[in-house]
Amino acid sequence: MKRVWLFAIILLAGCGSSSTTVTRDISPLPPANIVGASVPGGVLLSWSPSSTNGVSGYRIYRGTSPDALTLLGESEGLSYTDSTIESGNTYYYSVTAVKANVESAQSDQLIWGT
């Protein structure tokens, strides 16, 4: 013969109850589909927007190796022109999305050779 035990937990309102609000910053999703196009004196970078609502802008990172990118500039739109490239170099670009001062992870990298 099996015995079955039933337990009940009863919460009573007003009996020392308290309320707690938990907030956390959630990073926006990074932009996608970064492409480059040659323009006189540089490279025009463009990308698809972050799928997160409320993104206020984007930060563009560049480096001469894939693991050493530094901030190059910012854009409120979906493009940025880098006019500081030098012939003979290979550059790695990545873009992040910014929402309420919270930055996304970096996008996939674009490799650009001059």
List descriptors.
114 residues, mainly beta, Immunoglobulin-like, 5-stranded antiparallel sheet, disordered N terminus
Task: Please describe what this structure looks like.
The chain is about 0% helix and about 40% strand. With about 110 residues, the protein is mostly beta strands. The chain has a single domain, classed as Immunoglobulins (Immunoglobulin-like), CATH 2.60.40. Strands 3, 4, 6, 7 and 8 form a five-stranded antiparallel beta sheet that branches. Strand 1 (about 30-40) and strand 2 form a beta hairpin. The radius of gyration is 24 Å and the shape is elongated.
Q: Report the top-level CATH class.
A: Mainly Beta
- Helicity range: under 10%
Number of helices: 0
CATH topology: Immunoglobulin-like
User: Would you report the number of β strands?
Assistant: 8
Any idea what the CATH architecture is? Sandwich
Order of helices and strands: EEEEEEEE
CATH superfamily: Immunoglobulins
Cα end-to-end separation: 81 Å
- Looking at the chains present, what oligomeric state does this protein adopt? single chain
Strand fraction equals: 35-45%
Task: Kindly name the structural category.
Answer: mainly beta
Indicate the low-confidence ranges by residue numbers. Answer: 1-5
**What's the gyration radius in Å?**
24 Å
The main pleated sheet reads as: 5 strands, antiparallel
Envelope shape: elongated
Number of domains: 1
Mean of residue pLDDT? 87
